TrEMBL record:
<feature type="binding site">
    <location>
        <begin position="64"/>
        <end position="68"/>
    </location>
    <ligand>
        <name>(6S)-NADPHX</name>
    </ligand>
</feature>
<feature type="binding site">
    <location>
        <position position="258"/>
    </location>
    <ligand>
        <name>(6S)-NADPHX</name>
    </ligand>
</feature>
<keyword id="KW-0520">NAD</keyword>
<dbReference type="InterPro" id="IPR000631">
    <property type="entry name" value="CARKD"/>
</dbReference>
<feature type="domain" description="YjeF N-terminal">
    <location>
        <begin position="16"/>
        <end position="217"/>
    </location>
</feature>
<feature type="binding site">
    <location>
        <position position="163"/>
    </location>
    <ligand>
        <name>K(+)</name>
    </ligand>
</feature>
<dbReference type="Pfam" id="PF01256">
    <property type="entry name" value="Carb_kinase"/>
</dbReference>
<feature type="binding site">
    <location>
        <position position="160"/>
    </location>
    <ligand>
        <name>(6S)-NADPHX</name>
    </ligand>
</feature>
<keyword id="KW-0479">Metal-binding</keyword>
<comment type="function">
    <text>Bifunctional enzyme that catalyzes the epimerization of the S- and R-forms of NAD(P)HX and the dehydration of the S-form of NAD(P)HX at the expense of ADP, which is converted to AMP. This allows the repair of both epimers of NAD(P)HX, a damaged form of NAD(P)H that is a result of enzymatic or heat-dependent hydration.</text>
</comment>
<feature type="domain" description="YjeF C-terminal">
    <location>
        <begin position="223"/>
        <end position="491"/>
    </location>
</feature>
<feature type="binding site">
    <location>
        <position position="319"/>
    </location>
    <ligand>
        <name>(6S)-NADPHX</name>
    </ligand>
</feature>
<dbReference type="InterPro" id="IPR029056">
    <property type="entry name" value="Ribokinase-like"/>
</dbReference>
<dbReference type="Pfam" id="PF03853">
    <property type="entry name" value="YjeF_N"/>
</dbReference>
<feature type="binding site">
    <location>
        <position position="433"/>
    </location>
    <ligand>
        <name>(6S)-NADPHX</name>
    </ligand>
</feature>
<keyword id="KW-0521">NADP</keyword>
<feature type="binding site">
    <location>
        <position position="432"/>
    </location>
    <ligand>
        <name>AMP</name>
    </ligand>
</feature>
Length: 493
């Protein structure tokens, strides 16, 4: 994405349709003119990304997305490229019919796609099959074409949205284009950044089609993309008491690593003090590996209470377990009324004993934990991650981080942010423990729960990307700690 106006604003599909109508009906810009601008932006993108491409395959559906493809193909012919254009049907509606006519007037030849065909040997494919309105699996002929395009070994440029991807939710009900790049028009669609989408869209570009700023007046975005942020420099006379005392609670027998990762992440994220309440059997390992953590043996609520009194923020759940020991500490921690971050078994216990939070609280579920918290199935969560995150925030009156590809941050008032960073290498044990510690440390340094969640999610994902420079496979949670520190201080990782 660029840094131009609206580049971090995300819109739902209904909002994008309303913007299209406003451009035509209120601003008086003909639909075919908008289509011409979209095609010109897409062809410029193609030439910029693949400057040596001389033979282009274009695949058009019957709607306006296909119209964009017809006009791009006409421009490519005018530029001296060879164009192989295939249409899903002879049907072309409205402005798309005019676009098809322009392609044919430019000397283009249209061929109908059938399942027995083989793809032409081209340099770049252009996907103009379906636009933002598709919410069902592609039809059989289109699905066969998508399969061939994905297997061709040649890059695909998707117009507006990769065909088969739900532009509202980021899910794929059937086959979907694996694009090398997607150029999207007028407004960034929220579904391009979460769920299955990060694996389908490639690099995303937004083109506003030279529309005036008045087009967006009065229409607030559905959500926003997180932007790069850090904390301001500390005062030269700062001391550890100014930077928050985090108490990390967890680490049942055999899970010392989870609570250590949480505590160490809190230290690396700038907490002035970090205490750990854990099993006695974990003390030697924690003290040996990270002496800066103040590890305490806690056998029950009575031993936990003096630690709670001294803490500013609680990080509850990593390695906690759901047995009697973990449940007792969880209940005591929540009743202390301190600001907290709840993860892992802290969330599983919350699903068993729901409550509305009165203190500042950040919940960080993955889809499985989110499903338990909403008493539904994981596919229900993934079907609409935006709705799920917002429902969780309302149900528990907390800031919610719904983790996964394109993590979401939601608050009870409906505000929502989407994380554009992160990589598949982060699908490894311990990553959530780190995030819990990071957010808790930011709370302790004076961030609001919303600020701490947004900044923490962004730093965590960006540190993961920095650590993955050596390869995604084999990435460990602890690999993020050093880049995390550099990014928090505004340095290159």
């Amino acid at each position: 994405m660029t840094s131009r106006p609206h580049s971090h604003d995300l819109y739902a599909v209904d909002q994008v349709r309303a913007l299209d109508r406003r451009a035509i009906e209120v601003l008086g810009i003909p639909g075919i003119e908008l289509m011409q601008r979209a095609a010109a932006a897409a062809f410029a993108c193609l030439r910029r990304r693949w400057p040596s491409a001389r033979r282009i395959g274009v695949y058009c559906g019957p709607g306006n997305n296909g119209g964009d493809g017809f006009l791009l193909a006409a421009m490519a012919l005018d530029a001296g490229c060879q164009v192989d254009l295939y249409a899903l049907s002879n049907e072309a509606r409205g402005d798309a019919a005019s676009a098809r006519q322009r392609f044919e007037q430019a000397g283009g030849e249209l061929r109908l796609w059938c399942g027995s065909m083989a793809l032409s040997d081209v340099d770049v494919h252009v996907d103009a099959l379906y636009g933002t309105g598709l919410t069902r699996p592609p039809e059989e002929q289109a699905a066969h074409l998508i399969t061939q395009l994905n297997a061709s070994g040649k890059p695909v440029l998707a117009l507006d949205v990769p065909s088969g991807l739900n532009a509202d939710t980021g899910q794929c009900p059937g086959m979907a284009i694996d694009a090398a790049a997607t150029i999207t028009f007028i407004a960034a669609k929220r579904g391009l950044y979460t769920g299955r989408a990060p694996g389908q869209v490639g690099d995303v570009e937004l083109d506003l089609l030279d529309l005036p700023e008045t087009l967006w007046e009065g229409m607030s975005p559905d959500s926003t993309l997180l932007e790069v942020q850090t904390l301001p420099p500390r005062s030269r006379h700062a001391h550890k008491g100014d930077n928050g005392h985090v108490l990390a609670i967890g680490g049942d027998s055999g899970t010392a690593g989870a609570i250590r990762l949480c505590g160490e992440a809190a230290l690396r994220a700038g907490a002035g003090l970090v205490s750990v309440a854990t099993r006695e059997s974990n003390l030697v390992a924690l003290n040996s590996a990270r002496p800066e953590l103040m590890a305490h043996a806690v056998d029950g609520p009575q031993a936990l209470e003096p630690l709670l009194d001294r803490a500013d923020v609680l990080a509850v759940g990593p390695g906690l377990g759901q047995a009697a020991w973990g449940h007792a500490l969880w209940l005591t921690a929540l009743e202390a009324g301190k600001p907290l971050v709840l993860d892992a078994d802290g969330l599983n216990l919350l699903a068993r004993e729901p409550r509305l939070f009165s203190q500042a609280a950040v919940l960080t579920p993955h889809p499985g934990e989110a499903a338990r918290l909403l008493q539904c199935a994981i596919p229900d969560i993934e079907a609409d991650r935006f709705a799920a995150a917002r429902a969780l925030a309302v149900r528990y009156h907390a800031i919610v981080v719904l983790k996964g590809a394109g993590s979401l941050v939601a608050d009870p008032d409906g505000r929502l942010a989407v994380c554009p960073w992160g990589n598949p290498g982060m699908a490894a044990g311990g990553m959530g423990d780190l995030l819990t510690g990071v957010i808790a440390a930011l709370l302790g340094q004076g961030c609001t729960p919303w600020q701490a969640a947004c900044l923490g999610v962004g730093l965590h994902a960006r540190a993961g990307d920095a650590a993955a420079a050596s390869g995604e496979r084999g990435l460990m949670a602890s690999d993020l700690l050093l880049p995390l520190r550099r990014l928090l201080n505004g340095l290159d990782a």
